[in-house]
Amino acid sequence: ASELEKLRDVHLYKQLVDLVQKSMIMWRSMLDCHLKQHYIINNMQLDDVFSPIATTEYNIKNTLQLESEVNIWRRNLESLVHTQKEYVFAIHRWLCLHVIEIECSSKRAPSSPQKMSSPPVYALCKTWLSAVNQITGNSAVNALKTFSNSIHELKVHQTEELRQHKRLDHLRKDLEKKELALYDLLQEFKDVFAG
């Protein structure tokens, strides 16, 4: 039992502390990256840079690709948050099964003073689980869903605009043909009365 406790309280604890620290670094790095992106987006002056251009199939293809990538991003974020929660919960459950004297499995009073204190790995895991459970990801996921919906609406508008452009081109060509036919008819009419 003491060898298992040593593995749990020394080796597992060190590895979990390292994992928690690296997770925090990852989340901070993502936050920094997103804050920089947010700053850049807020400071963009698109109205001054771009003049409106007609929508092309290429624009629609790029919009579809952007929509797809945002949806993949959203699903990956949901999966990351879910996986981290499940991982920490699994460790916590394992500790509850193997550290009987702590508060997980029952409210019974410990039978000896030695069993009253929880191992540091359990305290770390409990704190980590509490922190991970506070992460809902809902605001980020909802923002990505809203963004994806906006991109989808843009695609719908682009498709309609392209359809209208094609119809306009068809009508323009039809008008040109009719103008040419009318011009030819007028020429014939002039020739008949002139000659």
UniProtKB/TrEMBL annotation:
Residues 2-153 form the DUF632 domain. Transmembrane segments: none annotated. It comes from the Eukaryota. It comes from Marsilea quadrifolia. Pfam families: DUF632. This is BZIP-like protein.
